[in-house]
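Handout, section B. The chain below has 104 residues.
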Amino acid sequence: MSIAIDKEKCVGCGKCHDVCPGTLIKIDTDKKAYIKYPKDCWGCTSCIKECPVYAISFFLGADIGGMGSRVHTEKKDGMLRWIIEHPDSKITEIEINPKESNKY
């Protein structure tokens, strides 16, 4: 499992770097984030949830999303939206209320 960081979208805030438990996300000389060793990514998605500009995507395995699918998050009106982009251009959205996510 691994992530992809879109350097065009990255604003260099460093939030992803700060939350990565494996210290795999680094900041380059242009103040843009990159993942040093993609194969070592734990798949925790902490960086995805912290990115304020949605510059980070997570590659989904065949068992949970299909080959080539990627997921990223967006926050809107207090809700967290997980957006899955499938290889066939299909989009699946899952909306979660973070205040209710640990209720059960």
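Note. The chain has a mean pLDDT of 87. Compare this with the example in section A.
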